[in-house]
Amino acid sequence: MRNDLSLQLLDQFVVLARTKNFTRAAEELHLSQSALSRAIQKLEDQLGQPLFERKPREVVLTELGELLLQRAKHILQLMEDTFSELSEAGRRGRIRLGAIPTIAPYFLPSLLSSFAKKYPDIAVIVQEDTTENLIKRCHHGEIDLAILALPLLAKNLEIEALFDEELLLVVPVGHPLATSKTLPIDAVEAFPFVMLNEAHCLTDNIATFCRRKAVQPVTVERTSQLATVQELVSLNHGVSIVPDMARKIDTSEQRVYRSFTGEKPRRTVAMMWNAQRFQSKAVKALMEHLRKRK
Question: What is the pTM assigned to this prediction?
């Protein structure tokens, strides 16, 4: 049995245990559902006992499955860290960098450009995802480092704040708020809002600030991309609140950005990593580069 028990099979088992669903696990592993089912059945046949209890909409680990999951995670992490350490002697470093969609296209281009000039032999592979997924992927060692926004609920992961940035009101040219001399946060309450969908932490950040100020803007449209929010504002679908880093690279003349008076909405950008996993020299170099760009 030991000769047949491959790392790939253990990895497939761990992904299924995490997702609790054959369809989702197969999609993540880029396998057909039948291929994954055969692989898990092979593993169960080798052990002589079921690893999962099959239910209509999910699978649940058996007692044996729970034991194997602990060992499998340890084995996979040990192998990943071993290869990472060995690759330090190679000619080219590699970093798997995760970032949320409201940071990746606005902050990473200049960051990675300056990093590449300083470290031309290090390849940075960017993986854009939601905060929730980045936390999971960092925990499981699928990414080396992530850039996201506070607050974060990430057990057993290290988090370091990098910098604060202001959140700005964006309105179409000619809008009544575009030329207001003073702009308190409650001034937006009379206008329809265009927002990101609720999977994005920026939406929760804005909503929390508005609730604290007893302001209830009415959201009329939601989208998954910040660039789409900006375009909908240009088309006079509503107003919105966006990070300053989005304003800095916006070349459109159809939008106006305004800062609020009084207490301003802000967000804190941070980096996150798993301190229990091996940190290569390349990853440490990028972390230090991020610190210097505060």
Answer: 0.70
- Per-residue pLDDT tens over the stretch 220-243: 999 989 999 999 999 999 999 999
List, in order, residues 6 or more apart from 119 with CB less than 8 Å away: 93, 282, 285
Determine the pLDDT at residue 1.
46
Distance in angstroms (rounded) separating the CA atoms of residues 52 and 21: 11
How far, in Å, CA of 123 to CA of 116, rounded? Answer: 8
Do 94 and 122 contact (CB within 8 A), yes or no? yes
CB atoms within 10 A of CB 239: 25
- The two three-digit tokens of residue 54, written as one number: 């099959």
Confidence tier at 288 by pLDDT (50, 70, 90): very high
Q: Give the chain's radius of gyration (CA, Å).
A: 23
Give dist(CA 48, CA 51) in Å, integer. Answer: 9
Compute CA distances 116 → 101, 120, 264, whole Å: 21, 5, 34
- The single-letter DSSP state of residue 262 is S
Beta bridge partners of 164: 268
What is residue 91's predicted lDDT score, i.e. its pLDDT? 45
Question: How far is the C-alpha of 235 from the C-alpha of 174, rounded, in Å?
Answer: 12
Helix runs in the chain, H state only: 7-19, 22-29, 33-47, 63-87, 104-118, 131-139, 201-212, 226-234, 244-248, 281-292
- Cα 230-226-213 angle, rounded to 5 deg: 85
